[in-house]
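Run log // design_07
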């Protein structure tokens, strides 16, 4: 299946509104340093949700008229809400977005559109691979926050947000499995490669 010019255009010209606002804000003023743990958590989570949003956007660009479209669109709508929430939390906690947001925008869209070009099952396999990593990542963050009584008292809102979003991502994982993700060609290899990329991107976003 050929990639239309409109799909290619969106790869490079559809960064999320939050990305633009956060980058502009951070460039206009110097924000005081947040709690190191909260700084790391919010920066990487925001980046991850921007990437996930773009994955589903890319999948919808290719599969928008397929029978899987309503399912993909529903998951995409949830990701939009996730991005919107982290959009609010970054300035609230005085956390700058990752400098790698342009990369996340392009990489997420390419991954979404690329997996969709391989078929609906491959798109669902991509969802399973990504959401499994994100679910594990949110679990690790919750453990870190719960280990420190100070964070329990100060960041109840953040704990609630991460818990809800973790549950949403795991629901997406189950949705992917229910829609034949494991029947995608080279499922195991695809999953391993995508998850390696996700974990590398998470590591980078925590630091840059």
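design_07 sequence
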């Amino acid at each position: 299946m050929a990639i239309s010019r409109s799909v290619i255009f969106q790869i490079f010209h559809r960064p999320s509104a939050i990305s633009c606002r956060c980058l502009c804000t951070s460039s206009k003023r110097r924000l005081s340093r947040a709690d190191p743990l909260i700084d790391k958590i919010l920066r990487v989570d925001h980046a991850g949700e921007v990437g996930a949003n773009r994955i589903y956007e890319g999948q919808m660009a290719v599969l928008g008229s397929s029978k899987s479209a309503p399912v993909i669109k529903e998951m995409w709508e949830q990701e939009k809400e996730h991005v919107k929430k982290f959009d609010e939390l970054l300035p609230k906690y005085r956390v700058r977005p990752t400098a790698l947001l342009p990369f996340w925008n392009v990489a997420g869209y390419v991954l979404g559109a690329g997996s969709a070009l391989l078929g609906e099952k491959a798109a669902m396999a991509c969802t399973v691979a990504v959401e499994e990593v994100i679910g594990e990542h949110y679990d690790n963050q919750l453990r870190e926050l719960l280990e420190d009584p100070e964070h329990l008292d100060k960041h109840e809102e953040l704990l609630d947000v991460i818990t809800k979003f973790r549950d949403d991502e795991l629901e997406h994982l189950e949705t992917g499995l229910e829609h034949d993700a494991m029947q995608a060609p080279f499922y195991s290899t695809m999953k391993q490669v995508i998850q390696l990329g996700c974990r590398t991107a998470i590591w980078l976003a925590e630091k840059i």
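The CA atoms of residues 124 and 179 lie 7 Å apart.
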